[in-house]
Amino acid sequence: MNIDAYLKRINYRGSLDPTTQTLQQLQVAHLLTVPFENLSIHLAEPIILDGDALFEKIVVRRRGGFCYELNGLFAALLRERHCGILRP
Predict the structure, then answer these.
(1) What gap in Å lies between CA 55 and CA 74, rounded to an integer?
(2) CA-CA distances (angstroms) from residue 71 to 10, 34, 68?
(3) Per residue in 28-67, is it b (16+ CB within 10 Å) or e — as a string?
(4) How sure is the predictor about 28, in pLDDT bands with cuts at 50, 70 and 90?
(5) The pTM is what?
(6) CB 7 within 8 Å of CB 86
(7) pLDDT tens digits for 3-21?
């Protein structure tokens, strides 16, 4: 996970302090910039839910995704040890 690239993808420039306000701001930034889309199903593309594949699709290729892709990548961001959002 390249946190800087992810934050750039969602146009987030705020704090990364582990607070509820940070979490809320990250969620809003993600919701406003990464679209829900299910084109992969219609294009018969494989659905791969590991973190690297989600990062490649949503951040690198600047695509959207469906709920478990978008939520999976957002959860990976929150779990990232360098980000610290979920860590006290």
Answers:
(1) 10
(2) 14, 11, 5
(3) ebbeeebeeeeebeeeeeeeeeebeebbebbbeeeebbee
(4) very high
(5) 0.85
(6) no
(7) 999 999 999 999 988 888 9
Q: Encoding tokens for residue 32?
A: 């406003």
Cα→Cα distances 18→39, 73, 75, Å: 34, 18, 14
Q: What is the token pair recorded at 15?
A: 């704090």
Two tokens, residue 25:
């701001």
Residue type present at position 14: G
Helix (H) or strand (E) holding 31: helix 20-33
Q: Which residue has the tokens 């006290």?
A: 88
